[in-house]
Amino acid sequence: MKKTMLGVIMGIIVLSAAIIGARAVHHSGRGRALAPQLQFPAHARVGMWDWRAPDGTSRTTKEHDAQSLKQQGITEVYIDITGYNDADELPKAADRKAKTAAFTTALRDEVRTLHAQGIQTHALAGGTMWGNADYWYIPQKIQQYVHDYNASVTADERLAGIQFDIEFYSDPNFSDDKTSATTDYLTLTQKLIDQHATLFAAGASPVALGFTTAPSLDGSNPAIPAATIPGVPTGPVVTALLYQLRNTPHAYLALMAYRNHTDGPDGTIAKSQATLQAAKAAGSVSVIIGEETNKVTPAKLTFYGRTKNDVKQSTLNIWQALGTNPAFGGFGIHDFKGFFQLSDG
Question: CATH topology for 39-341?
Fold first, then answer.
């Protein structure tokens, strides 16, 4: 009888522990139920900026990161290759050769690893000073590198696009002569578009061309002058850029409409409308809506300190509001480090 009663008591204790354990799994430390994990909109293009240099992470890290991106529903990654120019400008020829070779090997590893997870890859490069004529050679050199790289690697190592992040309005010298700086930027974009057409016209696989833009370029910010360059309609910078891209297949704009809320006159949806309508009118360029996750100011720009679910809910809201616009091209999450530092719930 004592043994039987002892067994019953022990069974109750074990059952109680299991219930407590289950509750612990499904609740946070504050006793609050964890939200189920949301997903990005089904079938949506979801890109992610990754500003880590390919030669700055190990192969093991690349494989782990690719699996994590796949699990989160990321469909393409923008890989920073700006470091190629740093390697190419080393003073000693031997150092240049060794460093660029190592950079290319690391890039091949990263692209191949991401492709193994079904994730597309675009090259990414940027500098605020590149709008200045003295630096135009850098993005042109980088685009040439993408062409040469694609021509020298296997199909599973090729880049599907190249994106330039040239925030000319953030250059310290922009305020000296805003009109000239704006004209110089659009002169550069035309050069890159022309070069792209020459380099990739005969390629076996299309290579998309993208430019990062901001809502302030849609004509709403008086600090950004209207575009006034020959052969391009006078108007907002984004309208001029769309006009330049009108004959470029697979062209896109990555719009940094960064807000941690979607509704209202200052929300992501409202901040995206003018660029989307301009792209719709242009008829040939898609727009990717960006979301920020890093620690930046003001706080309204970013999901820093919030959760991955908050970012995904934002994309779901945007998809519902803007997804029927034919110019809507999907989402871009800025960036790898910021997003994976967010909590899951």
Answer: TIM Barrel (3.20.20)
